[in-house]
Write the structure tokens for this entry.
Amino acid sequence: MIVRILNEGQWELSEEAVRDLNSLDDAVDKAVASADQGQLASALQALLSRVRSTGTVVPDDELRDSDLILPDADSTVEDVRALLSDSDEGLIPN
Amino acid sequence: MSGIFQRISLIFRAKTDKALDKMEDPRQTLDYSYQRQLELLQKVRRGVADVATSRKRVELQATQLNTQADKLTQQAQKALEVGREDLAREALTRRSGLQQQLTDLQTQHAQLQGEEEKLTRASQRLQAKVDAFRTRKETIKATYSAAEAQTRINEAFSGISEEMGDVGLAVQRAEDKTAQMQARAGAIDELLASGALDDPTGTAKDDITLELEQLASTSDVEQELARMKAAIGPGSSEAPQAIEGQQAPSQSLPPTTPSHGSYPTPPAFNAEQPQQAPANEGDLR
């Protein structure tokens, strides 16, 4: 599976490796729900370092769709909330 | 995985796809899409340049603040040498205020540097993807039938649109950070302009400098007087004393002045001063 870390690029991970990320997903979810910046930072840190260590980097010149997109390490609670918002604002600047 | 990342991924994809959905016949609009990619690439490069400019401005301000802090240290030293602890205290208090600004600037500098690195990296990544897309689009146009091309084009599109969304976010973020920084930089510019900085024309001086200069000129006057008196000889000191009297508030200082290297003091000055001072007080009041 292809996992993108926003602002960093893409990694290719095995299915099991992605499944293992689930527990960390819960931690991030809780941190965002309780607006706990410190907890979010440490949860993201743990998650992203696991992606980087278990995955292999997708070369820059490969055009591939990601199965999963993760916020980058120094995202704030607001950043993550913005990513989750359904606003019509497109991500691609015009 | 149906947690937070799945949601982020779905929303992200929906948004990026939407941007490219407008093209009805992807085959005909391959070139148009490529054009948009090049535009984004331009935008990222401008973003890198903007962040670099802001970073340099912060560096310049830090240098100015440092210079100013050094100057205040020197002023404090000078003030102490002439026995003005109050002035020295004022100079050091101001310096500690500057030091705080300097610490803030250093934090901001680190942040800007981080953004600059990320954007530079994003620009390289996008460049590689755009090149790959160009190659792919030429192959698709040349090789495949309309039906086949459709699938290939969708693949290429989804890969590039996601990257464009990611890089677009990075640019937006860098722009926000830079805007914040510029607002702050403006405030520091004002602080520096409000007399804290050396005026190159030398006309505007901060009050500490003024007071120190006054002290220096007082002792210059004393020296000149002493020199004249010595030249004329004893018994004709009435007129000079009247002038001297105007500087009465600083009279207690001269005895310490000779220890300071920057005011050349004739030896005669030292000997005469203590005798002259009480006489002046009497003349004035």
